[in-house]
């Protein structure tokens, strides 16, 4: 691990540069770099998956939802329960994870969020309280013990992309990471279709643009609010179900994803749904590249600092077209 | 004439408030003689947490900036004080006998880093406990308040700061002791002899009174009026010609300095500091004390910290799920009692009412 000392950081960079120069002939360095980039693609998949739900609840509805991580956690627990009780395949549990978290999301919208519209700081506090409560309740039911979810057997193993002379894989990507990316992109596609091509999506956009006018035209704004929030929570639930096989399932697991999801949405901007893809690409790859040059914790600190600077100068996100207001 | 002025002053003095705070102070002075050792250290800790709550109330309750980073300021002060206490371990009680703290030896450091070495001296350490968090807050404040960034985004920035610093402190094991933090520190001593727990209690009590009095005075002054106006309507106060950002940066920095001092006093009491206090969870605790006690009441956060801490102490013997109780309490307060528990007190007991000066007597009455 690198020590916090400017000179040593500089020195190690120098050493790395020397190594690069030496390895350039063997081509080994490009392999490591490619592997790191692929690793980054895996992170991008997870970021996209966890950020998508938040892009709905925050991006579209402007609800500061700090309980987002807990909805991911709930989705993971749903998968655990269905797999544990009925021996279901992970893929089969995804619809249930979506339904259960969406229903919980609808209840939360009805009982808590609805009372606090137009009051972002209060919403932030209430959802933070909710996140503590959800963790506590899950801990009460399932205890704090770590739970394990099995990935389907056909998704285990790696896909070799490049082999060396003896047949060993030089560059490979695990099937599960590919699966995550496919799910994330599919969900993004479905969500975009729902938002831009269906009447429900048109109603949602109408309500966000001009609530009073939409109400006058006969849109049931309260139902739209509830439905949209529930959908965002359901997406978080799917994220939880898919992620559950990657790491252990435990009550505080959502906290790990909360900050990342926020960073993705804030970076991508909330104007267009596609921003969440841009945000996760940028953060995921930046993280992987910096981690390759320095190390993991430093990469995280640098990325977080960069996002803070970004919020300072462009709170509306990088990929938002500037409008006159 | 002089009499009249004195008469005016006497009549404007909030007698009731003075009486109540006098009684409260007396109770806190008597308490340690009734308490056992455990309660003594618990109460010292809760008073510090209360002071931390008051410092957050200055920026949140009065100025409307919700921060999850006050645990960070607290911990920065704490680390400064922990380095001082660690470096002043006598050679005999240091595991490796030498100058170097044990965690640095474990991580292969051979000399004391230049930025930690000066903390061996008390005056420097004392200044650092206040200056490091204050400077950090000033830079941060200068950066975020002089922009178009609004309330919620600032809160998200504070969340990110807390998360980033936790990762940073955990990763720099050789310099910060990593996840374990700085443990086994020496006792704070005065003129060569260690301060007993009761002495520490009174030191902390004095600090708490100082924080409360300073905050009270500040918020009653014209400055407090401006801060509250910023909370009510930032645009209007800017149109009146006030530099809103400057006021925000000032109160933010001051609040961080107070939080840092609390952290500095926390280490001699707690005997260790670790990244746990940097993390978002602790920052949330502070927010919860203020939310439950009542924003903008100053006394509310102090009482909430003491009350919740005491209840937690007993509740944890019965249940493992104290956090759940806290979460439910926070939800209930936000949804149903937005002004906190202090607002449930009868009107006559409210701070605003108590501090209201009595009506001026007629000039005749003043004359005598």
UniProtKB/TrEMBL annotation, chain A:
Topology of the protein relative to the lipid bilayer: Multi-pass membrane protein
Keyword flag Ligase: no
Pfam families in the cross-refs: BPD_transp_2
Subcellular location: Cell membrane
InterPro entries in UniProt: ABC_transp_permease, ABC_UrtB_bac, BCAA_transport_permease
Transmembrane segments: 33-56, 63-82, 94-113, 125-146, 175-196, 299-315
Record key words, sorted: Amino-acid transport, Cell membrane, Membrane, Transmembrane, Transmembrane helix, Transport
rRNA-binding as UniProt keyword: no
Organism superkingdom: Bacteria
Entry-linked NCBIfam families: urea_trans_UrtB
Family under the similarity heading: Belongs to the binding-protein-dependent transport system permease family. LivHM subfamily.
Protein name in the entry: Urea ABC transporter permease subunit UrtB
Automatic annotation (TrEMBL), chain B:
Subcellular location: Cell membrane
Alphabetical list of NCBIfam families matching this protein: urea_trans_UrtC
Organism of this sequence: Leptothoe kymatousa TAU-MAC 1615
Underlying gene: urtC
Domain of life: Bacteria
Protein known as: Urea ABC transporter permease subunit UrtC
Chain ranges passing through the membrane: 17-35, 47-80, 121-145, 152-170, 198-218, 239-266, 298-315, 321-341
Bilayer disposition of the protein: Multi-pass membrane protein
Major subcellular site: membrane
Position of the signal peptide: none
Keywords, comma-separated and alphabetical: Cell membrane, Membrane, Transmembrane, Transmembrane helix
């Amino acid at each position: 691990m690198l020590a916090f000392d400017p000179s040593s950081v500089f020195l190690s960079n120098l050493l790395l540069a020397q190594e690069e120069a030496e390895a350039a002939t063997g081509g080994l360095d490009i392999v490591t770099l490619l592997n790191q980039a692929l690793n980054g693609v895996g992170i991008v998949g997870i970021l996209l998956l966890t950020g998508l739900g938040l892009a709905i609840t925050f991006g579209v509805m402007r609800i500061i939802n700090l309980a987002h991580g807990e909805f991911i956690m709930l989705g993971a627990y749903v998968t655990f329960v269905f797999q544990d009780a009925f021996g279901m395949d992970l893929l089969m549990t995804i619809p249930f994870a979506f339904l259960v978290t969406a229903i919980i999301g609808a209840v939360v919208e009805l009982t808590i969020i609805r009372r606090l519209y137009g009051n972002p700081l209060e919403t932030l506090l209430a959802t933070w309280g909710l996140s503590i409560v959800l963790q506590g309740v899950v801990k009460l039911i399932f205890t704090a013990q770590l739970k394990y979810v099995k990935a389907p057997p056909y998704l285990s193993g790696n896909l070799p992309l490049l082999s060396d002379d003896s047949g060993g894989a030089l560059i490979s990507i695990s099937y599960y990471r590919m699966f995550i990316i496919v799910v994330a992109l599919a969900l993004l596609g479905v969500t975009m279709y729902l938002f831009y091509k269906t009447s429900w999506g048109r109603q949602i956009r109408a309500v966000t643009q001009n609530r009073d006018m939409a109400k006058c035209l006969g849109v049931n704004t309260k139902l739209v609010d509830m439905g949209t929030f529930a959908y965002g929570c359901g997406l978080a639930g799917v994220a939880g179900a898919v992620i559950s096989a990657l790491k252990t399932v435990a009550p505080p697991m959502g906290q790990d994803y909360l900050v990342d999801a926020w960073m993705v949405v804030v970076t991508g901007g909330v104007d267009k749904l596609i921003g969440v893809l841009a945000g996760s690409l940028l953060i995921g790859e930046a993280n992987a590249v910096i981690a390759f040059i320095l190390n993991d914790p430093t990469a995280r600190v640098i990325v977080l600092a960069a996002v803070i600077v970004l919020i300072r100068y462009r709170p509306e996100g990088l990929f938002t077209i500037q409008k006159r207001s | 004439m002089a009499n009249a002025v004195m008469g005016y002053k006497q009549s404007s003095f909030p007698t009731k408030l003075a009486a109540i705070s006098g009684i409260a102070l007396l109770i806190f002075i008597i308490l340690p003689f009734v308490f056992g050792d455990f309660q003594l250290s618990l109460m010292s800790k809760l008073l510090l947490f209360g002071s931390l709550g008051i410092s957050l109330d200055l920026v949140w309750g009065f100025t409307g900036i919700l921060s999850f980073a006050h645990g960070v300021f607290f911990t920065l002060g704490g680390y400064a004080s922990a380095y001082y206490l660690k470096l002043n371990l006598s050679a005999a009680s240091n595991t490796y006998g030498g100058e170097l703290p044990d965690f640095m030896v474990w991580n292969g450091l051979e000399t004391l880093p230049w930025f930690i070495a000066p903390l061996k001296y008390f005056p420097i350490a004392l200044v650092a406990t206040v200056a490091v968090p204050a400077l950090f807050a000033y830079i941060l404040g200068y950066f975020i308040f002089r922009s178009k960034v609004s309330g919620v985004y600032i809160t998200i920035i504070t969340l990110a700061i807390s998360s980033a610093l936790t990762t940073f402190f955990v990763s720099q094991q050789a310099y910060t002791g990593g996840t374990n933090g700085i443990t086994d520190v020496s006792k704070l001593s005065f003129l060569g002899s260690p301060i007993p727990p009761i002495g520490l209690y009174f030191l902390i009590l004095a600090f708490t009174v100082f924080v409360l009095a300073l905050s009270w005075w500040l918020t009653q002054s014209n400055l407090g009026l401006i801060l509250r106006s910023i909370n009510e309507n930032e645009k209007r106060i800017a149109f009146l010609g006030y530099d809103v950002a400057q006021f925000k940066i000032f109160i933010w920095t001051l609040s961080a300095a107070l939080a840092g001092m609390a952290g500095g006093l926390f280490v001699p009491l707690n005997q260790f500091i670790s990244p746990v206090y940097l993390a978002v969870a602790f920052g949330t605790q502070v927010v919860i004390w203020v939310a439950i006690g009542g924003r903008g009441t100053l006394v509310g956060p102090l009482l909430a910290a003491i009350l919740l801490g005491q209840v937690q102490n007993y509740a944890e013997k019965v249940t493992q799920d104290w956090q759940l109780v806290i979460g439910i309490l926070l939800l209930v307060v936000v949804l149903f009692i937005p002004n906190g528990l202090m607002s449930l007190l009868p009107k006559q007991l409210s701070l605003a009412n108590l501090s209201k000066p009595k009506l001026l007597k007629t000039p005749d009455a003043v004359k005598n």
